[in-house]
Amino acid sequence: MTSRPPRESLAQILGGRRGAIDASIPPAAFVLGWLIAGQSIAWGSGAAIGVAVLLGGYRVARGDKARAVVVSLAAVIAAALIALHTGRAEDFFLIQLLSNVASALLWAASIVVRWPLLGVVVGLVIGQKTRWRRDPALLRAYSRASWVWVFLQYTLRVAVYGSLWWSGQVVALGIARTVLSWPLVAVTVAVSGWVLYRTLPPEHPGLRVVEENENPSDSAPGGLPRT
Questions:
Q1: Quick one: which of 191, 184, 196, 204 has its CA closest to 143?
Q2: Residue 218: inside a domain, yes or no?
Q3: Can you tell which superkingdom this protein's organism belongs to (predicted)?
């Protein structure tokens, strides 16, 4: 009897620790520069942009995709420009706050329309694309696990960032930006992975089952997947 290969953990599939850590460094540089220069937004912005450029150059030299580096740098520059325009240091974190509001709404909507984004992301990463939707057990599991991302990651960030931004707590925002980056992502991946596999039946082989046991009869007429 052939033993079944062990299920992959969600953390093994998604990874992403380096990107989350990198994203928290420029905001920390902004707060540090802002404090050292006597609460100067200009100096804080310069520190954040300078660190982002150095970090991006290092990542490109290490072989990372230039497009991802440019997007990250653009986000830092946009955050700095907003703070410089409004004259409020806490507005450096406004894009981060709004992006988490948008992410929470988008992830919740994806679950409602039965296209849970966790399934979409994992499907792309493992080369399964959208074929996982042909498996009702996987669709249900991805939906439940996606709610973890909605509440544990995005809604929590909105609550923390929003309250600190509203009260103008710049240093606390910088600390929260660091704490709620990779540490929170790691917890979210672990909890959502637990929910995902707890939802799947015990005999279910895992996330790649549709790709490995794909059956043309599972498709609806016209080639559309059954859901």
A1: 196
A2: no
A3: Bacteria
CA dist 119 and 121 (Å) reads 5
Dmax over CA atoms of the chain, in Å, equals: 70
DSSP string across 6-72: PPPPHHHHH--HHHHHHHHHHHHHHHHHHHHTTS-HHHHHHHHHHHHHHHHHHHHHTT--HHHHHHH
Determine the structural domain holding residue 157 and report its residue range: 10-212
222 located within any domain: no
Estimate to the nearest angstrom the gap between the alpha carbon of 131 and the chain centroid. 22
User: How many CA atoms, within 13 angstroms, populate the side-chain half-sphere of residue 46?
Assistant: 10
Structure confidence by residue, pLDDT tens digits, 85-105: 999 999 999 999 999 999 999
b/e sequence 160-193, b meaning 16+ C-beta within 10 Å: bbeebbeeeebebbbebbbebbbebbeebbebbb
| Assigned domain for 56 exists | yes
Tell me if 217 is assigned to some domain.
Answer: no
Rg of the Cα atoms in the chain: 21
**What predicted TM-score, i.e. pTM, was given to this entire model?**
0.82
Q: Is the pLDDT of residue 122 over 80?
A: yes
Q: If you count them, how many residues does the chain have?
A: 227
In this structure, what token pair is assigned to residue 47? 């520190």
Can you tell me the distance from the alpha carbon of 22 to that of 20, in angstroms, rounded to the nearest whole number? Answer: 6
Question: Position 171: which residue type?
Answer: V
Taking only the tens place, the pLDDT of each residue in 136-147 is: 999 999 999 999
Q: Could you give the CA distance from residue 77 to residue 26 in angstroms, rounded to a whole number?
A: 10
User: How many domains does the chain contain in total?
Assistant: 1
